[in-house]
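To whoever picks this up:

The parser on our side crashed when reading a file containing two proteins. I've narrowed it down to the boundary between the first structure block and the second sequence. Both blocks are reproduced below exactly, byte for byte. First block:
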Amino acid sequence: MANFGTWLFTKLKGEFVGEDANGNRYYQARSKKTRPLYHRRRWVIYKGEENPLTIAPEWYPWLQYLVDEPLAPLNRPWLKTAPAANETGTASAWFPDGDPRALGQRPAATGDYTPWTP
């Protein structure tokens, strides 16, 4: 969610460009720069928590000034709808078997291990 300053800047100087399937809204500056090396400022207002992983892949090239218009969404059966969030450092993080944080028991040794001796 945008703070008051971003909301006010968007209302005064922003031009709505589009919205993705996640509800994120994309804007660019209304003023057009006349010099050839200048770009119009582009930004995104996230729906909910500010997480760059929620930006749809077709909007990345537009935000990075690689294309002038946003790309059409790809509808392929093998594409995932959204990337999974990085759970590292949270209670939902994955831990291997036997790790005390996984709250599981390590499997018993089978006796087929012999330590290396030089």
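<<boundary where parser fails>>
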Amino acid sequence: MITKYFTKVVVRFNPLGKEAKTARLFLSSIPPTQRLSGLSLKNELLNGASTASPLVKVTFKDKTELELNPTGITFQEVGNFFDRHSRKLRLKETIEA
């Protein structure tokens, strides 16, 4: 997954829910060096009584925000969803250089 263009990441999930594996894999795919170099990362754990829905939300360097519900989808699908926009930014960066 291309995480170079992420500026803000918000992940909200129930650690005992179906979405936990996908959300944790997503969080683990963000390199530690990027976490230290300005990426704003917010992780919120939900309990069983919570009414909030699970969420993975990413803000990119061009201020585009994409979000999805990680319930019922795989990590590969989440990666593909966010990579589509990252590839556009990489192409734009390559053209401008």
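After patching the parser it read the second block fine. The first helix runs from residue 20 to 28. The chain has one domain: 6-96.
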